[in-house]
Specification:
Radius of gyration: 15 Å
Shape: globular
Number of domains: 1
Structural class: alpha+beta
Strand content: 15-25%
Number of strands: 9
Helix content: 25-40%
Strand order of the largest sheet: 1-2-3-9-8
């Protein structure tokens, strides 16, 4: 099932990526993602979220990703704040590989943008709750390990630390401009 091409508080990383069929997920994952965004629209109406690549409609190899083969993996671009502290979408264009080539520094900044760790924590908890309602769960999250202390120090960060498993070692490619979520299907049917 393809993720929606837009919503009140979210958008895909690339209209081209949507047209090329790079935003398909398992139907239960799609319902989880959209339910989480709906919850966040009420909780954090000012926050702009951007989802990244997910997978192909038929599954299978999905270059350049090592995962994203079975509809259970979703990349979420980091929510960012501008110099005035306003939530803005992460800049995604062909010139920065649709956001995947942005580099954040040790202070979680890229130019005038800074990562909104409170928004990430709220999003992960909304995904966790929506997944439980759908009978699935978050298996693990991949996010730059250097940023985990900042995430866990965020508002609601302690709840994220307790409820969600993170890969503790660096991935083969740095995950600073996005966080990768692997969902797992539970035994309960939808």
């Amino acid at each position: 099932m393809r993720l929606p091409a837009k919503g009140d508080n979210f958008a895909p990383y690339s209209e081209l990526g949507v047209r090329l069929g790079r935003t398909y997920v398992h139907e239960r994952v799609a319902r989880t993602v959209t339910a989480a965004y709906a919850a966040l629209a009420a909780l954090r109406p000012e926050t702009v979220y951007v989802y990244g690549e997910t997978g192909l409609a038929q599954g299978g190899r999905f270059e350049p990703h090592r995962t994203h083969r079975n509809g259970l993996s979703v990349d979420f671009m980091v929510p960012v704040l501008d110099a005035q502290g306003r939530s803005v979408p992460l800049p995604t264009a062909a010139g920065n590989r649709f956001g995947y080539d942005l580099e954040f520094d040790a202070q979680a900044r890229a130019g005038e943008l800074r990562i909104d760790f409170d928004a990430i924590a709220a999003h992960l908890l909304a995904l966790h709750a929506a997944a439980a309602e759908e009978g699935i769960r978050i298996g693990r999250v991949i996010f730059d390990p250097a940023y985990l202390p900042r995430l866990f120090a965020a508002e609601r960060g302690e709840a994220v630390r307790r409820r969600i498993a993170f890969m503790q070692r660096p991935a083969w490619v740095r995950h600073d401009e996005h966080y990768h979520v692997d969902f797992e299907l539970a035994c309960r049917p939808p």
